[in-house]
Automatic annotation (TrEMBL):
Keywords linked to the UniProt accession: Membrane, Transmembrane, Transmembrane helix
Family matches, as InterPro entries: AB_hydrolase_fold (IPR029058)
Protein name, per record: Integral membrane protein
Keyword Kinase assigned: no
Compositional bias per record (Low complexity), positions renumbered to this chain: 1-10
Keyword Protein transport among record annotations: no
Region annotated Disordered, chain positions: 1-23
Entry's transmembrane regions: 110-128, 140-160, 267-288, 294-319, 339-358, 374-394, 406-431, 458-481, 526-550, 570-590
Length: 796
């Protein structure tokens, strides 16, 4: 165990950057670094963001390069450091890369919390098992994830159609009693017998809401596409294009350049949104025309529906046709798809609106729109896609088994199921709350309530929410008891880590509890697996219940015993309130984050973790900040070392360590020989290696270790995020003692805090290891090899 408190360093300073510049702990051999040319320390912060003043420990900072979104800063006194190397013989020049505005800087981005299912399904794409064969299974895995993502877009727009077309324009405006309660529905009410009173015209007007939602999603995706996916990455070695397919994915020139795929997916999903709205409008008018005596209108309705079905098949083909291109910078754009597909779907929507708005004097709205079955079909299709995805993932996992792979390679399907469940809960929450709103709080579909309410499936989905909560409560209690027992068992080890200190039961319990709580992260796969499995089974039960209710609604109500009926009503009511509360909670968080900068930063942490990966499955997900941050870091390291010939330590904390590793992968081999990698609080193996084994698996991390000149990784047992990287060689340094002092000492007269994931730079080990890295770079030490030993490894 690396005991930081035994080092001959001074007391850790409160400000991280001050310790970063400390020079008291100079290891043997570091003096030779003074004549080895300039040295640069490039600091990369982690989740939550910070300021350059806090990173550099100086209130006077200057932006060296970059813009208001992401930039590199230096202290004002260090701006011309390269012109005065004699000032920096005993320390590196500190630089800070601040990227927090890529995620949490814009207040409008807090509303992206409502797009959480899109972000989650995008993560599922990158959770593929690490097998490289067979190629058909790898391609099929990507296709299935993209189809699930497409179904989520259709589900979102269908929910908007349910609210605007069915609940509002069809049911409420079609009822004189309901429409009188809302003055803004007066001109469409059947009680006024105006031009807009006909059902088709009300539907045509209401179609503006889901169409506007689709346009808004297209606009946001297009704007972020220009700012993120269109950023040129560093083209490290054009001559190596022939072998790029054999190298780690992060080293390929086109990995951080998803311009073409996102443009195609954006066009397809935009078209899907327009076509969903058009289908909702057309279905009601076509149903009426088939029951009427007008053969012309019936034929026209069939033609419009056939055109919509054909366009839908084109959308599915576009989504399935092409995946990501990573082996080279793909500058092409499929103009026939990106320009004409959304315009064609918009034209079909206009045709559907004209068809529905045609004069039908005898048409009256009753019941619900025929789109009720669409939600059942979507739920069934999503379930089948997730099951097929699990089968493909299991096949790939058998080709490349890994002991630490999350859920034995089924992490992607589990996350895809979670995305579908989130989409269903949000859809049900919107429909239930709007139904309660338009009928002034009456229970939809009951006597005395004018609207019939949302589709039965959404009601059944609400009914299974209490069952899901009932499943999760004992699971959470199990983890709580296990954590408590682990903390008790760890108490003797805590005392042993501080042999010169007098034991204190209260202090020991707090440290042991921090260590036990940190280990909960390693049990997250089990919890996610239980949630996803329960969601799949309960979703199937809700689908079967909705179908049974639609077949025998009267017999189901009459034949059920009183206790069963009471329990069903209670579950439905409680589930309805849960889904509604969940949706309102999302909206409240979004509103608070829009107004409160602190809350906005908290919401931004979700995107820091979830939007590292490019948008490979869903174009309406929050954009990938790494497609800007990784090229920024790679360009800076490559140009600075090429211009000065100096040494560079890239120092990354938490998510910054992931960005640092990804940027080092992008560098040419000559530049990597001048680079040292210092990571701390690093989730590269503990989180990314387990959940994304095809990109951060043992083989990839071992390859990075062999290619970079030298690498050190600091970690603590109290850190719930960071951990060892588990590669062969002298890389891992830990677990560092946390707190650095058990009680009051001469160096620590006040109680030392339990730092957990924060303030790694305040640990004396940080300055010590950074000095060692700079010394190794100065001496030209050969890159690390597996036969150097494993003294730095720890099982954690």
């Amino acid at each position: 165990m690396f005991r930081a408190t035994r080092a001959a360093d001074p007391a850790p300073r409160e400000r991280a950057a001050e310790v970063s510049r400390a020079t008291a702990a100079v290891p043997p051999g570091a003096a030779a670094a003074e004549s080895a040319g300039p040295a640069l320390e490039l600091l990369v912060h982690g989740v939550g963001g910070t300021t350059p003043e806090a990173m550099l420990g100086d209130p006077r900072t200057v932006r060296v390069t970059g813009d208001d979104t992401a930039a590199i800063h230096r202290c004002a006194d260090d701006v011309d450091a390269e012109a005065h190397p004699e000032r920096y013989r005993d320390r590196p020049v500190p630089e800070a890369y601040v990227w927090c505005n890529l995620t949490s800087g814009n207040s409008a981005r807090a509303l992206w919390l409502l797009l959480l299912p899109f972000m989650v399904i995008n993560l599922a794409h990158w959770m593929r098992p690490p097998a490289k064969e067979p190629r058909w299974a790898i391609r099929l895995y990507g296709v299935l994830v993209r189809l699930v993502a497409l179904s989520l877009t259709v589900l979102l727009v269908a929910a908007a159609c349910e609210v605007a077309l069915d609940l509002t324009a069809w049911q409420c405006a079609g009822s004189a009693g309901c429409s009188r309660s809302w003055y803004w529905l007066g001109f469409t009410s059947v009680a006024h017998h105006g031009w807009w009173a006909q059902p088709g015209r009300r539907l045509a007007l209401a179609a503006l809401a889901p169409a506007a939602l689709t346009v808004l999603l297209w606009y946001l995706s297009n704007r972020t596409w220009s700012a993120y996916e269109s950023q040129q990455p560093l083209n490290a070695d054009p001559a190596a294009d022939a072998t790029e397919a054999l190298r780690p994915a992060f080293s390929r020139p086109g990995f951080w350049y998803g311009r073409r795929l996102v443009a195609r997916l954006r066009a397809a999903h935009t078209a899907a949104g327009f076509l969903t709205t058009a289908a909702a409008v057309t279905a009601a008018a076509a149903r009426y025309d088939r029951a009427s005596t007008s053969a012309v209108f019936a034929t026209l309705g069939l033609l419009v529906e056939a055109a919509l079905a054909a366009a839908g098949l084109v959308v599915v083909w576009v989504v399935c046709r092409r995946g990501r291109t990573e082996t080279h910078l793909d500058e092409r754009l499929d103009r026939a798809v990106t320009a004409w597909l959304p315009l064609l779907s918009l034209a079909l929507l206009a045709l559907a609106v004209l068809y529905a708005a045609w004069d039908r004097a005898d048409w009256a709205s009753s019941g619900t729109l025929p789109g009720d079955r669409a939600f059942g079909f979507l739920t069934f299709a999503q379930g089948m896609l997730v099951v097929a995805l699990a089968a493909v993932a299991w096949h790939l996992r058998r080709r490349a088994p890994g002991e630490r792979t999350a859920l034995r390679g089924l992490g992607g399907p589990a996350v895809a199921m979670l995305a579908c469940a989130l989409g269903g809960v949000m859809t049900g929450g919107v429909a239930q709350r709007v139904a309660d709103w338009v009928d002034r709080g009456a229970t939809p579909g009951t006597a005395g309530s004018a609207p019939n309410g949302p589709p039965p499936l959404l009601t059944w989905q609400a009914s299974v929410i209490p069952a899901l909560i009932a499943v999760l409560i004992p699971v959470m209690l199990y983890f709580a008891v296990r954590t408590w027992r682990a903390a008790r068992a760890d108490a003797p080890r805590v005392v042993a880590d501080y042999p010169t200190e007098r034991p204190d039961d209260g202090r020991t319990r707090r440290i042991a509890a921090a260590r036990a709580m940190a280990r909960l992260t390693d049990r997250a796969p089990l919890f996610l697996g239980i949630v996803s499995g329960a969601s799949l089974l309960l979703g199937a039960a809700a689908l079967a219940g909705a179908w049974w209710t639609s077949q025998v609604p009267a017999r189901a109500a009459d034949a059920a015993p009183a206790p069963v009926a009471f329990g069903a009503d209670a579950a439905q009511s409680l589930g309805s309130w849960c889904t509604g509360f969940g949706f309102l909670l999302f909206v409240t968080w979004g509103r608070r984050a829009y107004k409160d900068a602190a809350a906005r930063r908290t919401v931004g942490i979700l995107w820091d973790v979830g939007t590292f990966w490019p948008r490979a499955a869903h174009p309406f997900a929050p954009p990938c900040y790494a497609e800007r941050a990784v090229p920024d870091l790679a360009w800076r390291m490559n140009t600075w070392t090429g211009r000065t010939g100096g040494r560079l330590v890239i120092s990354g904390h938490s998510q910054g360590s992931v960005l640092a590793a990804a940027a080092v992968w992008q560098l040419p081999a000559g530049t990597r020989r001048r680079i040292a990698l210092l990571t701390y609080g690093c989730p590269v193996e503990r989180l990314y290696g387990r959940w994304f084994p095809a990109y951060f698996g043992p083989a990839q991390l071992e390859g990075l270790h062999q290619e970079v000149h030298c690498w050190r990784n600091l970690w603590r047992a109290t850190d719930p995020i960071g951990g060892p990287v588990r590669v062969n060689g002298d890389v891992d340094r830990g677990p560092l003692l946390d707190p650095v002092a058990y009680g009051r000492t001469d160096l620590h007269p006040l109680p030392a805090p339990i730092l957990g994931h924060s303030d790694y730079q305040a640990d004396p080990a940080f300055a010590h290891e950074r000095a060692l890295l700079l010394a190794e770079l100065a001496h030209g030490v050969p890159k690390q090899r597996a036969d150097q030993g494993s003294s730095g490894r720890s099982s954690g």
